[in-house]
Design goal:
7-stranded parallel sheet; 46% helix; Rossmann fold; 425 residues; globular; single chain; 2 domains
């Protein structure tokens, strides 16, 4: 009880910072200023169908949830799927993927009054939180209102587990209150158990069940045909702030003068910033948003588009995974391996440690010990077509061998949903 009171007080004291953060983010990305009421528990949507609620913070979680959502839509057509997000890009991704098939709103901040409004307004028959979204007040309110909540596709790095331990009894109470924890790996399960988690099952990673959209694969094939098959192409995918400078430094070290570098920043609010940096360095670049074929004299193609990452992977000879060159934890390499794009990772992949190790062991990926090796590693791979072909085939095999998490998760949710086809239960 004491830790919960401290948590509530800290949330209250942080309110000015929360509002300032929302304002600043909105200044850079105006979508943050839309639907602000939802972040405090005020919603317009209402209906009579029973609701299955799934929380996916941003783009990565939304895409990872796609196989599950499609399976739920097919298996429980009498239910309404409610997707909650934290970021506008996550919300936009769900619009692209599902259109009007689902409702989408922002999850409120974890104030008791806001999450109470959320739970009582929608009254879901089941809630699912993707990956590492453990919000004490939200989970407590769901338990009070008898709404079962699951933590699905759950992952917890060693670093995150250390941070959560500072919350002590509060995090333990939240984990115990969950109806099911569906962990990605045994290591994730053990870390969650060490924090107090119970009723833990290991299901694998939902991301492996995502099928690359055929239209994106075709788009990537067309891009590559326009660029020219003989021209080497390497991709820096989902880059974070500070990483483009490292990538351009490596690019200058590559002796293949006609090699094309594609840079796809992870966050759309940084597209103009990266374009300005390229211009400042005198680099000949084009923007994807200009919708023009890549010229032979173009050195860098700036991927300033959303929802086309599979196409970029299809067009590239290899992909460097963003978030891994600086201590940011890395991004998920599964989309690249599913397309058969050889993967290069920096030393900082702790958010995806297990899948990264498995991809390297399978021969689908290479991981650097130090960032200053990037130019050398990329040069070696671009000049070694047989090795790239072997990594491509290994990536596709690796992805297929790890599929099946969606089916295992459906078996876990069935007891909560099979008899919930009406609001009367």
């Amino acid at each position: 009880m004491r830790t919960r009171i401290i948590y509530a007080v800290l949330l209250l004291l942080a309110t000015p910072y929360t509002l300032l953060h929302l304002f600043v983010r909105g200044w850079r990305q105006r979508d943050y200023w839309r639907n602000v009421g939802e972040r405090f528990g005020y919603y317009r949507q209402a209906g009579e169908q029973p609701i299955i609620w799934l929380h996916a913070v941003s783009v990565g979680e939304t895409r990872a949830a796609a196989p599950l959502i499609r399976a739920l839509l097919a298996r429980y057509p009498e239910h309404r799927i409610l997707l909650t997000h934290t970021t506008p890009t996550g919300r936009s991704a769900s619009e692209q993927l599902f259109g009007d098939l689902v409702w989408r709103v922002y999850l409120p901040y974890d104030y008791a009054f806001a999450v109470r409004r959320f739970v009582r307004h929608f009254r879901p028959v089941l809630g699912m939180l993707m990956e590492t979204e453990i919000w004490p007040n939200l989970i407590a309110e769901c338990r009070r209102e008898q709404v079962p909540v699951m933590l699905v596709n759950a992952r917890l790095s060693h670093r995150s587990a250390r941070r959560y331990r500072w919350l002590g009894g509060l995090i333990r109470q939240s984990l115990v209150a969950l109806s099911v924890i569906a962990a990605q790996t045994e290591a994730d399960a053990l870390r969650l158990q060490s924090l107090g988690g119970e009723r833990i099952s290991i299901i694998g990673n939902l991301k492996f069940d995502t099928v690359p959209p055929p239209e994106q694969l075709e788009l990537g094939r067309l891009w590559r045909a326009e660029i020219g098959l003989p021209r080497p192409v390497w991709l820096a995918a989902s880059t974070r702030e500070g990483e483009e400078a490292l990538i351009l430094e490596a690019w200058r070290q590559i002796p293949l003068g006609n090699a094309l570098l594609i840079i796809v920043p992870r966050h759309p609010q940084r597209f103009d910033e990266v374009a300005a940096a390229l211009r400042e360095h005198g680099i000949r670049f084009q923007r994807r948003s200009d919708d023009e074929p890549v010229g032979s004299a173009t050195q860098v193609w700036l991927g300033d588009s959303m929802g086309e990452l599979y196409a970029y992977y299809r067009a590239a000879d290899l992909a460097v995974i963003g978030g891994s060159l600086l201590p940011l934890g890395g991004q998920n390499p599964i989309e690249a391996t599913a397309v058969g794009c050889p993967v290069v990772m920096g030393p900082h992949m702790w958010n995806f440690a297990e899948v990264s190790r498995a991809a390297v062991a399978a021969g689908a990926a290479a991981q650097m010990e130090a960032v200053n090796e990037l130019g050398q590693v990329v040069t070696g791979l671009l000049g070694d077509a047989p090795r790239r072909a072997a990594m491509s085939a290994a990536g596709i095999t690796f992805s297929r061998l790890h599929q099946g998490a969606t089916g295992r998760l459906l078996a876990l949710v069935a007891p909560y949903l099979d008899n919930s086809g009406t609001l009367d239960g």
